C-alpha cells in the first residue's frame, strides 16, 4: 500500500532525486520492533504459520496498542499472516507475537487453511460432472 506519487506544480523545474533507503524503504529498527512486541514477547507463541487465516471477532478495545488496533481493523475479513505482515509492513515474527496476544485476549480467531488432501479427488468431480451433463 504505497501512496500515490505527487504531480509536480512546475513540470519544467527539476528537483534533486529523493535519497533511496539502503534497506528498500522499510525501517529495520530493532528497538522499535522490541517495543511493539512488548517486554513479554519471549514467552510462548501461538502455533500459527504464514498461511494461517486470521479473523477479528470485534472492534478494537481502547487498551490495545495502535499496531494491534490496525491489525484488528485489517482482519475484518479473513487474511493470512503473510498478508497481514505485508499490509502492516512488519516482519512476520512481530505479527505472530501481536497475534498471540490478541488470541489470548479472545479478540481474533485463527483458522487453519484448507489442506489439499481434504479436497475431493479429481476422478470424483469428473464423475459428478459427467453425470450432470447426461441429465
From TrEMBL:
It holds the Pfam family DUF742. Residues 1-30 are annotated as: Disordered. It comes from the Bacteria. Residues 1-11 have a biased composition (Basic residues). This is DUF742 domain-containing protein. Transmembrane segments: none annotated.
Amino acid at each position: 500500500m504505497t501512496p500515490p506519487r505527487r504531480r509536480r506544480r512546475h513540470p519544467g523545474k527539476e528537483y534533486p532525486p529523493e535519497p533511496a533507503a539502503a534497506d528498500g524503504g522499510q525501517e529495520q529498527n530493532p528497538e522499535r520492533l522490541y517495543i511493539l512486541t512488548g517486554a513479554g514477547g519471549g514467552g510462548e507463541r501461538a502455533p500459527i504459520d504464514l498461511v494461517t487465516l486470521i479473523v477479528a471477532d470485534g472492534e478494537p478495545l481502547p487498551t490495545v496498542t495502535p499496531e494491534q488496533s490496525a491489525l484488528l481493523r485489517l482482519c475484518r475479513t479473513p487474511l493470512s499472516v503473510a498478508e497481514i505482515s505485508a499490509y502492516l509492513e512488519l516482519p512476520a515474527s512481530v505479527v505472530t507475537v501481536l497475534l498471540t496476544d490478541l488470541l489470548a485476549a479472545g479478540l481474533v480467531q485463527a483458522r487453519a487453511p484448507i489442506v489439499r488432501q481434504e479436497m475431493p479427488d479429481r476422478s470424483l468431480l469428473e464423475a459428478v460432472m459427467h453425470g450432470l451433463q447426461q441429465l
